[in-house]
Amino acid sequence: MSKKLFIAKNIIFLINIFLFIACTIYGLPQIEGIHVVLAYFIVVIAVTTTAFNTLKDLKHINYNDKYNLIFIVSNLIIMFIMLRGIFDNSIVTNVYHQLDEVNGSYYRMKFVANNLFYFNLIYISLICYQLTINKGHKN
Amino acid sequence: MKRNIQIGLTIIILTISSYLFISNIGHIIYLRTTSYSYNFKNGPEIESIKRSLDNIKENIKKMDKLTNSHLTEEELNGIKEDLIDKVEQIDSLDFLKAPEKENKMSQVEVFKMVNGNFTVGIISTIEQCRTLSNHKENVGLDDFIENVYLLLMSSGEYVKPLMNNYQYPNKFIKSDNDNYMINAIMNNLSMRINVIEYISNLVVESGDINE
Question: Tell me, what's the pLDDT at A95?
């Protein structure tokens, strides 16, 4: 069960990274705001630390169920919001969306950017949580 | 100590996640269920639009009998065909067909209304005005430009509230739900049709009517 949760956590995290890249392609960096810059910075830290922890010593993989479960739940919500930002046209049901796709995706990405503050809080909390876990031991 | 920190962080993460989940569900419901109501029967715009539409149709008929026009035959036919197209587009607008009852419109229906409104284009109208101004001094270009300005400004007015959809409903200002947007769409359409009517009048005045 612990290993399955760990694998699920990593898969969801990977999907979220791909979605974040998709949001970047759709124009997320064009949205102004400190949250956007901070989000990129935090994503880089989160990816690096996760990859580092996983690759450093595979025997000491973190099987902390509580952490993995919280990680999965919060990342599923983040995934839901990014998917809405990419695909949900009802967010911008205005005429410019039809006439100009760039404008349409801009306002959908603005919706994602409005949520980046919460994404940052979640990822900072998750990184802090990870730091409190003793490596290689189940809590 | 570590355990207390973990409990605190867990509470923070779960609280934010729950807030995001509930807000998003609320947002989806909001976008799909919000409706705008407008009583077309009591709106003066409908009568104005219908009157202008009848006048344009009458003018199109008169154009067939037009002689000695200072417009060339090619220009006259071009303007006439465009006017016929526009009259067909205006006739096909759903909200003009059944104005008797108070309509409740969802966001999607308002979106369709905006799209339908925009098909009555302004670019060809401007081109027609330019053609007319080549021939006659009495085009009233200043009035026309002022009219176009108002037209573009009112377009922005009703698109603005729809653009606010990227926010969660709890951030909406209440007045955004009021019916002024429908009024703005109707006023915008009314102004477009007035410009078209004005052009059709000018075309008819460009020559003699052979009764």
Answer: 39
Domain identity same for B7 and B80: no
Asked if this assembly's ipTM is beyond 0.95, the reply is no
Over the stretch A22-64, which tens digit does the pLDDT of each residue have? 988 888 887 777 778 888 888 888 777 777 766 665 665 667 8
- Global confidence as pTM: 0.64
Q: How far is B190 from chain A (nearest CA, A)?
A: 18
Same domain membership, residue B106 and residue B19: no
**Residue A97 domain boundaries:** 2-131
Distance CA A7, CA B178 (A): 49
CB contact under 8 A, B159 and A111: no
- Same structural domain for residues B39 and B27? no
Number of domains in chain A: 1
Residues of A in contact with B107 (CB under 8 A): 90, 93
Domain carrying residue B2: 1-33
Q: Angle between the A2-26 and A65-87 helix axes, to the nearest 10 degrees? A: 30
- Is position A56 within any domain? yes
Low-confidence ranges of chain B (pLDDT < 50): 173-177
Residues B20 and B51 in one domain: no
Interfacial residues of A (vs B; Cβ cutoff 8 Å): 66, 70, 73-74, 77-78, 80-81, 84, 88, 90-96, 98, 107-108, 110-111, 114-115, 118, 121-122, 125-126, 128-129, 132, 139
**Rounded to an integer, what distance in angstroms lies between the CA atom of residue B9 and that of residue B3?**
10
Instruction: Report which secondary-structure segment, H or E, holds B106.
Output: strand B102-106
Domain check: are B155 and B170 in the same one? yes
